[in-house]
Amino acid sequence: MLKICVDVDKCAGLGMCESWAPDRFEVQSDAKVHVLAENIDESQRDAVQGAIDNCPTGALSIE
Ligand code: SF4
CB–CB of 41/49 below 8 Å? Predict the structure, then answer.
């Protein structure tokens, strides 16, 4: 099982990740992204990888 990791110190709250995987990422009132469900399987990997690749601050990763 893969797990989404967020470095909240790097997150600038820009919301690119929300556009790629809205069922996984949500920028909340604290202007930081929150992971709605951190465990992903291979079928969800492409959308999450798109979010990771397009995060301008490099705050996201998969482990
Ligand atoms: S794309 Fe990156 S900087 Fe923007 S909200 Fe998502 S994790 Fe934060």
Answer: no
Q: Is the CB of 12 under 6 A from ligand 1?
A: yes
Specify the CATH class of 2-62 in words: alpha beta
Minimum-distance ligand 1 atom for the alpha carbon of 12: 3
User: Which amino acid, 63?
Assistant: E
Q: Are the C-beta atoms of residues 51 and 24 closer than 8 Å to each other? A: yes
Query: Which pTM was predicted?
Result: 0.93
Q: Is 13 in the pocket of ligand 1 (CB under 6 A)?
A: yes
Q: Return the best residue to mutate from 32, 36, 60, 62 for the ligand 1 pocket (most ligand atoms within 8 A of CB).
A: 60
* Span 3-35, pLDDT tens digits: 999 999 999 999 999 999 999 999 999 999 999
